[in-house]
Amino acid sequence: MSTGTQSPTGVRTPAGAPTVWQALARQAPYYATVLRRTWRGSAFSYSVLPALTLASLGLGLGTFVDDGGAGSTGEGTAALGGLSYLAFIAPGMVAVTAVMGAAGESTFPVYAGFTWTKIYYAMRATSLRVRDLVNGATAYVAVRVLIAVVLLSVVVALFGTISSVLGGFALVGAALLVGVAHTTPVIAYAGWAKEDTALGLVFRLGIIPMTLFSGAYFPVDQLPAAVEALAKVLPVWHGVELCRMATTGEVTSAAWVHVGYLVLVTAVGWVLAQRQFARRLGRI
Amino acid sequence: MASSTVLRGTSRGAAHPTAYPLLERHVRVYKRAPAAFASGFLEPLFYLLSIGVGVAALVGEVTLDDGRTISYTAFLAPAMLATQAMNGALFDATYGFFFRLKYEKLYDAVLATPLRPVDAAVGEVLWATVRGAAYAAAFVVIMAALGLTSSWWTLLALPAALLIAFGFAAAGLALTTWMRSWQDFEFIQVAIMPMFLFSATFYPLSAYPDWMQTIVTVTPLYQAVDLVRSLTTGAVGPELLVPITYFAVMGALGLRVAGRRVGVLILR
Amino acid sequence: MIEAQALRKAYGDFEAVKGIDVSVERGEAFGFLGPNGAGKSSTMRMVAAVSPLTGGSLRILGLDPESDGPAIRARIGVCPQEDSLDGDLTVRDNLVVYARYFGIGRRDAARKADELLEFVKLTEKAHGMVEDLSGGMKRRLTIARSLVNEPELLLLDEPTTGLDPQARHVVWDQLHRLKQTGVTIVLTTHYMDEAEQLCDRLVVMDGGLIAAEGSPLSLIARYSTREVVELRMGVGENEAAAERVEDLAERVEVLPDRVLLYVADGEKVVEEAMARGLEPRSTLVRRSSLEDVFLRLTGRSLDA
């Protein structure tokens, strides 16, 4: 940028609006500071906790699910498309954890930016635009989700449930995608929320039930037909399916549908988020 | 003031204040946020209707310690009930209490009145217990409606949930008095999640090797699940005195410590 | 009402109150005056029976705060420095619930709440939330709350700090009315005008000790002159100017932004100073205040 003003003390302030990338770069120091201060707390959630979940459900509950298991009296492996219960839930858990992490980072931090820290009002008072703020918040959550899914994928690989190296990278990509698809709509919601109790509610009534019916823990065709149809509308289900294709290596053309759907949800959320941010910050 | 004789010699001197006004305060607050309170009922229901349906089909039936077999859903439901009592109680006794203590400074105001630190602790525990038990009560009704109970002993799951909620609330309250910041609550998660995953919640203890069974048996959530499941399946015997004593002691100790610690923190 | 001897309070190695003797009589309005960190709030917390003594003795309403805390607190009202209102409750419920903490019956609590809302002119806000109140309204609500148990002794810690001038006068007016009903008032403040307005008697605290005691007028008479001349000379010129007029005043104080001359007749001294060729940017002649007493006693200006 060649134009701008220079103060007597030598501070040069660029004139005009920044590009999308410049805007992100300008917010990076803030978000990097936040990340440095808070990442440690979530390390447990993204490494130890999923390992425990896989051990408890995959190995423990698995002995009651898998054919030939000590306690198996149900439909077992046949209902899981020939997979062991461990291999079945591992990708589901990665998708679910990515969604929970994304939603978690998109609720309180965003709400706080409007209420407690008021950081968005401060940012809006600079040459950054509303869209830049939404991009910044989304990018920050995406980075956190990426860190999380890399950790998760390592855990899953250690349980021996990833079929190939390429599959591992595909798992990271798929989980990141479903995470981001739950970032922009939740950011929009957090921008809309007027009380912090609304943030807890979106988890209890939205995110958690969605993950429970997402096909992560059991195939959705076990559910009554109407519920199954509903489950397949949820973006989480598409994410779980994508992640499972990645770990098992059995990729079908349905993958494009899943990817397309998740991109669509992300885009709609992005538009809604800008609308809520603009409304809240007082002007377009 | 014109009518300043209104209260003299009537209720002010006569009534001995207890923790009850604090319970009243918490109820009043939650009356203003019914959605937040009510949503707590739904969470275990979602678990029951998803895992209890989908995973049940995969697992089929579960063999209990006494050799009887029950459906996986009937096996899972009491565990959800116990978890419900725990979570309902812990939420207010940890996060809620911390917020009131450190941010709202509620107890700085409360202890300027005749109320004592122990009243503050009792008030919090009462409220958290009521909340945990209310969720549990609703869940008992749902279980009965879905035919997931096989004994009249199930009715006793309600007082059992009350006792479980009391134990967790008091212990949570005591631990929270040592919390320095929100980051410290990570420790509570570190304790809760493994318990939730391994306390014979999702499958019988028999899945574990002996040494692990021993470890699991001493954790509070296992004791809670064991107590409730024994009642809903009708496997009642004198051995239930173990979990009952466990929670009575846990609650009494927690309350004592919490009462003292609130005094240390506020009355400097 | 309050009887303190050699009262001390220490937090670890830090000694906030270093041994003070205070006695407050029924019906009095008594003030603790001093800058931040003088030990006022620590003293108030001990008097409110929420902070154990480190040393000395203290009787409140004839009772020992160590053993009779609840009985003492039942009969006093406390308005803390930081509003500790209950943000989860409505304005009216703040009063009702607080009254319930005192064991006051439900019906009496409700009636008292309405009466007090009327008294502090917040009836219209009764069903709003606390966070929607202005600073002055919050303080009035806190004062109302401290009155729910019809206290014999009212403790106010910095009752008007952070309020705008108009809101301060509203609070003062309410405290005057309370005083007329016979309530004993003890307050801390670092505002001199507040102490002069409200207190029958006060102590000046500094560094955890009492520097002086008396009525506002007697303190001014004892530690200051009738009038004060303020000369604003401009940055860096105050010191030199002070030397040139030293002999005109009983006492001279040089502050960063002005020179204070303590004199009997201000106008005359201003004329004389001008005659000596002083060219202040502005001059002011005023009556002595507690501010001057404080400056004299501690060698420091209050807002410095």
TrEMBL record, chain A:
Protein's name according to its UniProt entry: Transport permease protein
Protein location: Cell membrane; Membrane
Keyword annotations of the record: Antibiotic resistance, Cell membrane, Membrane, Transmembrane, Transmembrane helix, Transport
UniProt family annotation: Belongs to the ABC-2 integral membrane protein family.
This protein's record includes keyword Transmembrane helix: yes
Species lineage: Bacteria, Bacillati, Actinomycetota, Actinomycetes, Propionibacteriales
GO BP annotations, alphabetical order: response to antibiotic
Coiled coil: none
GO MF entry, a single one: ABC-type transporter activity
GO cellular component: ATP-binding cassette (ABC) transporter complex
Pfam family, one: ABC2_membrane
Superkingdom in the source lineage: Bacteria
Record PROSITE patterns: ABC_TM2 (PS51012)
Automatic annotation (TrEMBL), chain B:
Family: Belongs to the ABC-2 integral membrane protein family.
Listed InterPro entries: ABC2_TM, ABC2_TM_bact-type, ABC_2_transport, Nod_factor_ABC_transporter
Gene Ontology BP, a term: response to antibiotic
GO MF term list: ABC-type transporter activity
UniProt feature coiled coil, ranges: none
Compartment(s) of residence: Cell membrane; Membrane
Nucleus listed as a keyword: no
Membrane topology of the entry: Multi-pass membrane protein
Entry keywords, A to Z: Antibiotic resistance, Cell membrane, Membrane, Transmembrane, Transmembrane helix, Transport
Domain ABC transmembrane type-2 per the UniProt entry, residue ranges: 35-265
Name this protein carries in UniProt: Transport permease protein
From TrEMBL, chain C:
InterPro entries on file: AAA+_ATPase, ABC_transporter-like_ATP-bd, ABC_transporter-like_CS, ABC_transporter_ATP-binding, P-loop_NTPase
GO cellular component terms listed in the entry, alphabetical order: plasma membrane
Keyword Transmembrane helix carried by entry: no
Protein topology in the membrane: Peripheral membrane protein
ABC transporter domain span: 2-232
GO molecular function: ATP binding; ATP hydrolysis activity
Bilayer-spanning residue ranges: none
Record keywords: Antibiotic resistance, ATP-binding, Cell membrane, Membrane, Nucleotide-binding, Translocase, Transport
Main location: membrane
Pfam families found in the cross-reference section: ABC_tran
UniProt-annotated location(s): Cell membrane
BP terms from Gene Ontology: response to antibiotic
Family as reported in the entry's similarity comment: Belongs to the ABC transporter superfamily.
Protein name: ABC transporter ATP-binding protein
